[in-house]
Design a protein that fits this description.
There is one protein chain. With about 210 residues, the protein is of the alpha+beta class. It has one domain: q2cbj1_9rhob like domain (Jelly Rolls, Sandwich). Helices cover about 25% and strands about 35% of the residues. It contains five helices and 14 strands. Strands 1, 2, 3, 4, 5, 6, 7, 9, 10, 11, 12 and 14 form a twelve-stranded antiparallel beta sheet that branches. Strands 8-13 form a two-stranded antiparallel sheet. Helix 1 packs across helix 4. The radius of gyration is 16 Å and the shape is globular. It starts with a helix and ends with a helix.
Length: about 210
Amino acid sequence: MNNKEILNLAAAYSKQGTIMIGLKESFFSNQDFEKLVGICKAVNYETVTIGDAGEQNFVKVGRFMTDEKEPKLVDNKFSKDVMQILNKNEHLDFYKKIINIKNEDIYVRRVQVNKMSEGNFIGYHLDVDSNPDYIAAVVIQLGKDFKGGEYVVYKKDNKDNPPNSFSPFFQSLILSDCTYPHEVKKIFSGERISLVFFLCKHKNSNQRYLKS
């Protein structure tokens, strides 16, 4: 991806709060992507009906890093491998260029895989309600051959304005500003599998916990 393409993505992100790109032959290697696909097939899942931001959901979740009080690796055989991939410098540098962070570090927090089948959905919510310091959410699509499951992003503080709707595809990446409300529409058929994590400027305590 050349500088002009990155500048165009950064401009689109600044304007609408969300971008979607294909990862094939990108900064994210095909080998790392396939490794994540294999891990997310093997991890244990739990059914979640209330999300971290209090939204109504119906989704199966496999966890690699939680962020209730502070970032904490889940004790399974996969978490370290997942974090090793997500923390690669070329990945973090790409996100920083898009969200316009120049002289600061960013950190990956709250990493999980969401598996959604027919009738499943993720309700309207704000990611900053999970942690006020979250900057952006990253959603990597590992599933294919599903219908529905659009990632719908609303204008700030106004659900009635026309939203932007993104239809993720196999090996796509969505980068979304955590101050924009959004939801994932109901799945009609197939299985939508997404690796989801959040970017933050620090790895200290969750401010939501400190304020509670």
